[in-house]
């Protein structure tokens, strides 16, 4: 995947809780498996909850803390957490989303996925959603790599640009359901960043249930001092980024 000599614009889509709705409860199911993994290491339920939240908050990914502080095999973690999810029962193809991807003008734009998951999980989700043939490249957390990086660490974004052959970050378009990940990309000069947030739905961050609430957003808006644009439906990208879509005849 990918062409290091390609100078088209590039759109980066996060995968989990972005390409499918948080209502699928995948994050909750994942949180339960991660909690069970902490407990299997000998932690009490209270300690497991505390460490899960601390590592997620500190590193952006609970597994980063586990590998740094508890000598955990990340591939074992992946098999028992991401790999154990019954994804085929939880998400289905979305024709509307596929049409959105198809309507991106490929003469001007490349489409890549940018995820904190491992390759196997990312490819599995894209395949189930029937988007795998519309994604040109994938940047993921390489659990086989010692001291791997993840969003929102700057090293992760630098690695993504290198893998995609991007020399000008202002050509990057990026959408993610995690505001911190979007802010990190903006600090590195990524030109067009959007926070995807489904109003009123619950997600799990760091093992804790969190209510998504962006002041009853009805459409794309800029929220907060960081000037992050927020959308509640990926279809709104047609209005936020009209230049990347094919012109209607």
TrEMBL record:
Domain of life the protein comes from: Eukaryota
Coiled-coil ranges (or none): none
Molecular function GO labels: nucleotidase activity
SUPFAM superfamilies, alphabetized: HAD-like (SSF56784)
GO BP terms in the entry: nucleotide catabolic process; pyrimidine nucleobase metabolic process
Protein name per Swiss-Prot or TrEMBL: Pyrimidine 5-nucleotidase
Organism lineage: Eukaryota, Fungi, Dikarya, Basidiomycota, Agaricomycotina
């Amino acid at each position: 995947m990918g062409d290091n000599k390609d100078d088209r614009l590039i759109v980066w889509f996060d995968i989990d809780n972005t390409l499918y709705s948080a209502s699928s409860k995948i994050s909750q199911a994942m949180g339960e498996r991660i909690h069970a993994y902490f407990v299997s290491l000998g932690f009490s339920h209270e300690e497991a909850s505390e460490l899960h939240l601390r590592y997620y908050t500190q590193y952006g990914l609970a597994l980063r803390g586990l590998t740094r502080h508890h000598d955990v095999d990340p591939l074992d973690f992946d098999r028992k957490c991401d790999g154990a999810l019954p994804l085929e029962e939880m998400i289905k193809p979305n024709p509307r989303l596929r049409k959105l991807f198809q309507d991106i003008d490929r003469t001007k734009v490349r489409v890549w996925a940018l995820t904190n998951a491992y390759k196997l999980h990312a490819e599995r989700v894209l395949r189930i959603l029937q988007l795998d043939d519309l994604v040109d490249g994938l940047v993921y957390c390489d659990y086989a790599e010692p001291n791997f990086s993840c969003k929102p660490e700057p090293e992760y974004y630098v690695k993504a640009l290198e893998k995609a052959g991007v020399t000008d970050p202002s050509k990057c378009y990026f959408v993610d359901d995690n505001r911190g990940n979007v802010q990190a990309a903006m600090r590195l000069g990524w030109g067009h960043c959007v926070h995807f947030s489904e109003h009123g739905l619950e997600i799990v961050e760091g093992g804790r249930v969190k209510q998504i609430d962006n002041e009853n957003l009805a459409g794309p808006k800029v929220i907060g001092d960081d000037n992050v644009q927020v959308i509640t439906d990926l279809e709104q990208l047609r209005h936020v980024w009209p230049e990347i879509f094919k012109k209607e005849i």
